[in-house]
């Protein structure tokens, strides 16, 4: 798509979870790519382009419904939301700036003899807090999120980081936005697309991650 923890329901080992946590150190537009074509953010599309192998699902760690021919796509529970406060070390309600969260996924894939092309439409919900206007008078907030492809061996094949921007008009809250992504994953002889996994989550700093762990989303393990 060329733009973590036993809680991953048995798909991943503790070792992989530690690798994913370590990857939180990547910020901005840094990415790990080892395939020719990484995720791409699509523009100009208002609806997900869904094939006959389409999957749908909600956030909080729920993958889209598993299809035998498609990679498994999941939102990571602990990384499914990001909350910002004036003082992130000691967050208080009066200092709440904004929040964004994954709300749903729609995915589909198209198979070719030596590859699979996956499309994802990721829905986001955003809301403002009482300190939003003081911090950003224009009420424009950007939240980095990642999309990672995991090989059948549990290795990170690629990681791409994107910036999702919420632009609030006249303190409009809540706000909804959809991002569209596409990637072609090469398959070697004997490999199945369903042996691959794709993880999505927000790129959090240590304080944001600590906050999520102290306020787990429903469905976290």
Provide an overview of this structure:
The structure is a single chain. By secondary structure, this protein is mainly beta. The chain has one domain (about 5-215). About 10% of the residues lie in helices and about 40% in strands. The chain is built from 3 helices and 11 strands; from the N terminus they run αβββββββαββββα. Strand 8 (about 140-150) and strand 9 form a beta hairpin. The protein is elongated, with a radius of gyration of 17 Å.
Question: Which features characterize this protein?
Answer:
mainly beta, 3 helices, about 220 residues
| Count of distinct strands | 11
Number of helices: 3
Task: Estimate nothing, just give the exact number of structural domains.
Answer: 1
SSE topology string: HEEEEEEEHEEEEH
Topology:
Blueprint: H1 14-22, E1 32-33, E2 40-42, E3 55-58, E4 72-75, E5 81-85, E6 96-112, E7 115-128, H2 132-135, E8 140-150, E9 156-167, E10 175-186, E11 197-202, H3 206-214
Parallel strand pairs: 4-11
Antiparallel strand pairs: 1-9, 2-10, 3-6, 5-6, 6-7, 7-10, 8-9, 8-11
In summary, what is this structure?
By secondary structure, the chain is mainly β.
């Amino acid at each position: 798509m060329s733009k973590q923890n036993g809680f991953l329901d048995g798909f991943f080992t503790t070792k992989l979870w530690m690798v994913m946590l370590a990857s939180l150190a990547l910020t901005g537009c840094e990415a790990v790519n080892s395939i020719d074509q990484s995720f791409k953010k699509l523009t100009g599309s208002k609806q997900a382009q869904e094939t006959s192998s389409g999957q749908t699902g909600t956030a909080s760690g729920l993958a889209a419904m598993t299809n035998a021919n498609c990679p498994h796509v999941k939102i990571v529970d602990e990384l499914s939301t990001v909350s910002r406060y004036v003082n992130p070390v000691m967050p208080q309600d009066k200092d709440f700036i904004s929040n964004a969260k994954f709300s749903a996924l729609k995915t589909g894939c198209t198979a070719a003899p030596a590859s699979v092309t996956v499309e994802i439409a990721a829905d986001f919900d955003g809301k403002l807090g009482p300190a939003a206007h003081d911090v950003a008078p224009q009420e424009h907030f950007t939240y980095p999120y990642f999309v990672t492809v995991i090989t059948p061996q549990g290795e990170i094949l690629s990681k791409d980081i994107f910036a999702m921007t919420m632009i609030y008009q006249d303190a409009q809250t809540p706000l909804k936005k959809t991002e569209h992504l596409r990637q072609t994953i090469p398959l070697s002889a004997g490999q199945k697309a369903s042996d691959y996994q794709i993880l999505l989550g927000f790129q959090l700093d240590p304080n944001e991650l600590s906050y999520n762990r102290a306020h787990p989303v429903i469905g976290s393990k």
